[in-house]
From TrEMBL:
GO cellular component, one term: plasma membrane
GO biological process, one term: protein localization to outer membrane
Annotated protein name in UniProt: ABC transporter ATP-binding protein
Gene Ontology molecular function: ATP binding; ATP hydrolysis activity; transmembrane transporter activity
Family per record: Belongs to the ABC transporter superfamily. Macrolide exporter (TC 3.A.1.122) family.
SUPFAM superfamilies according to UniProt: P-loop containing nucleoside triphosphate hydrolases (SSF52540)
Segments forming domain ABC transporter: 5-226
Amino acid sequence: MNNMLEIKGITKTYNAGKPNQIEVLRGIDLTLKRGEVVALTAPSGAGKSTLLHIAGLLDVPDAGTVTIAGQDMTGLGDRRRTAMRRAGVGFIYQFHHLLPEFTALENVVLPQLANAVPQAEAEARAMALLDKVGISRRATHRPAALSGGEQQRVAFCRALANGPGLLLADEPTGNLDPETSDLVFDVLMELVRDEGLSALIATHNHELAAKMDRVVKLDMGQVVPA
């Protein structure tokens, strides 16, 4: 199986059947090959966050199928979806959402402990990831003591802590100033390539999108020519 992610015929409507219903996705088809990094561009409100949530098993479509690493996720119960998400999917958001009471190292260790990884192994993996993004020296600092760019690098490491095959990112550098955004995005791309991930990364920044393998554009709930 050459594809990491296959999305077919995905539809999603909020408040269905009501006067204020919103048809967010209208028959989305999207394929992501193994090792491919794809930019998802879209105007605000076009449905990119909804699409990412459905692709990452955080939300359920009204119709259509989601296949990850050759396994059809359609109809899975909540427990199975959660297990698949923890093991196979990494998420990065615009805001880092780090746990403020824990150090950078601990923030990267915790997802592994939730997957029953032994403490020593989890700490070694966390330190290796922090070293890859150039902030291992800040491992014992809490988020409040880190810069915005450093916090987001920790969030990258946390997303990859459990070795997912698929990475989904929603404006991962959108909360940073332009200069920091460029630097941190380059770190993300290097990390993704080094880990051999397939990644779908939503961004409004066309310069960042151009650094990826391919650009997919979403508009009015449908994939349109980029």
